Protein 1
Amino acid sequence: MLLLPPRTPINRPSIRSCVIALSCLLVGQSVLAGCSATPKDLRDGVRKAITGRDEQIFVEDTVERYYHPNVMIKRGEAYFEKEEYAEALNEYTRFLEMYRNHVLASYEAYRLGEVHMNMGKSIERDPEPIQKAIAAFERVRKDYTGSKYDAQALEKLEECRSWLAEMHLFVGRFYYRRGSYLAAAHRFEQIFKTYPDRPVAPDALYFLAMSHHELGADDWARADLTLLLEKYPDSSAAVDGKSMLATLGGAYPPLLAQKSDSAIVSDAGSASTKIGRAHV
């Protein structure tokens, strides 16, 4: 019988040691590679597209820092300056939800109105942003009465209301040009009733008279023109109104000029009531 030499036992612990050593080597290489890039280098890679003050505003270390009031204010301002109004709107709204009593809350509330105003500042656009701006500025005056931005909010309110009046006039004239005289008359009347102190109010009354004339309601047209001459005698629309009133067989009553201011207001209210009946 052939005798074989005894088999040498495999030293399993030594294999295990090799595996561990190899693993350590691989991990060590990874660590060395990672160490070659400092935390600053890693952050710089994220910030390549962000420079200047934006670097401190948009990239922060912690959630707490991200929602710090000063950081939120700076971030909102950066968006506003870039005319990225939707993002600025989110920042200002979030700030007011979190820091309603902050020392700069009145400023953020005022900025919120400015954002809405800039988003809708065109007479050809939807009036909703301007309406939201009015609501925002009214909130500034209500919630932060006496603040630095109280008087400024009032000025913006006047500007917004003038824009809305111009929007209605634009739409009314559009309807008038299309021959939709009843729809046009509704718009012109709305301007006179809602914004009688706006610069476009005389034009609205004149176009209201023209719309009533096109509808065959010359009595109402004469009432419109009479009211125009009483309330806005120095307007450019009053000049055209006199000519139209003469064409319709009416005349500017000379006694109206001698009436007291209270009588004129009373007569104007009566004429306005007549105008309202045109659409009942």
Protein 2
Amino acid sequence: MLYPSDCVNKIINRIIWVTQKSIEVEENRARRKEELKEKIRKNNFLMDKIQKAKSISIWIFIVPFVAINSCLILITQFHGLFPNQEEIIHWTLPYIDGGASISRTARPYPSWLIFKPGMFLTAFLLIKYWLYSKEIIIYFNKDHKHLKKIIFFGIGSAIALTIHSIFLGIKFDNDLYKLFRRVIMVVFIIFEITAQAYLITALYSSKDKLLNYINVKILKAKLILVVCLIIVAIIAVPIISMPGNHFKFLKHGLEWNYFLGVITFYMLTFFMWKVRKGK
């Protein structure tokens, strides 16, 4: 039995329509699958950078903290290790009494064997930290206006710390050289605090997007810390930079506590980031 031509056309059109719909469904399914894969890939990339920034940040706190306090314990408690007994220091707690500067405890041999490698490692970790922070910011806002400033001041602070560590212990009876060392230390402080301030600003500008990745209370604590560091720096830098022994104990106490405040920023970073598995 032969079907009328119009029935045949309807059947053919129906088959074509069903085929096209099936193709569209498969294409949509494949597209959604690729979109999901891309989303997972990007999320895994972000979590990798967050994990690395989190891991490095705690070491940026531990390494310099252990280094400077090891030098302090060494020079105040293990006098027999120092060939030049004029360089030893009797008991002091400089965080409170300002009895010695950080450089005074780290300059003599063998203290610098601990201090210099510790600072070089800290500088390396700082560079890695700021580069990972850059990747995190780009993920949420690739055109952030402070991105270049964060990298410039962050890496600049690491370079200043390296230069300061290299010249520590090298003695030149030259006023220009002494000024150079003070300037490098001031540059480290200014660059480090500026980088931290810009980073906090960048994180706050993307706070709503970051809610699943950060502890907001810790972010606020970091903001308070940075504001306090800036206020203290404005007051303290002129005092620390003064030549001679004017306000010596105050300068030493400020130096120890301020450095502790600077590295505490990185300890808070460790607790701020949440590590979530990609989904």
Protein 3
Amino acid sequence: MHTKSLQQCLRQSRNALMQNIQRTIVRQRRATYIKVVAKLASSFHSIYENHNYNPVENGEYELLRKLSGIDVKCIFDVGAHIGNWSCFVTNLFPQANIHAFEVAPVTFLQLQQQISRLCKQRIHLNNRGLSDSNKCIEMYYYPDHTDLTCDRNRFPQHLHQVISARLQTGDEYVQEKDIKQIDLLKIDVEGTEYAVLKGLNSSLEKEMVHLLYFEFGPFSVDTRILLRDYYDLLGKKFWIGKIYPNYVDFRDYNWRYEDFRPAHYLAVLRSRPDLKRLLS
């Protein structure tokens, strides 16, 4: 049988199988076994698509390890929380200066305490956040879930406190500190990642940021910021890809990626094909 005929036969068999499955589901959608299979399929797909916030498992730390052999001098940790990520990159990149940003005062105190055990000369702590403008706003701090601090009450099931937070544009901070290049920018700010990038627009346009990664997911439902907005903002200067446990899948935009499930994306400056090859 010719290859073309074999492929056609396989395609017809697959289509027939899918039609049979569809008919079975339509007839027995309420059956327990159908619900169990659906749940298993959903869980499988979630694992396959790396819907995982744990940096040890989802590829974030593996990505950083791959970068440990390159010359990294300046790192931004936006949404530093208590400093676990900053501590990790401090050990990986012994020559780098790290600028860590945390808005919540109580969390910032914990950040200071943890960083005090490291090389403080290389880590610059800022009790403020980055955004698209300079301002002071009310934010929501969750004492029992300090990693969830955000600009709106997204977690009403948890006890919260309203705090005053100072925000600054990244471009202004870069100018204040006379920073010439940001080798690695990490953004984890519970739904306001796009605003952080807008506040760094001048630095991005000047190609001062070489590599950045950000979260995209369910909070985009209420911010109304789509993955397409990130591609529109970054796509001319950066290759963009989704982070998986062992590699980054660099790819063009497709509306099918707008699933609002937890995901981490990486952007690499187009003038750094070495980084793209290293991480692909």
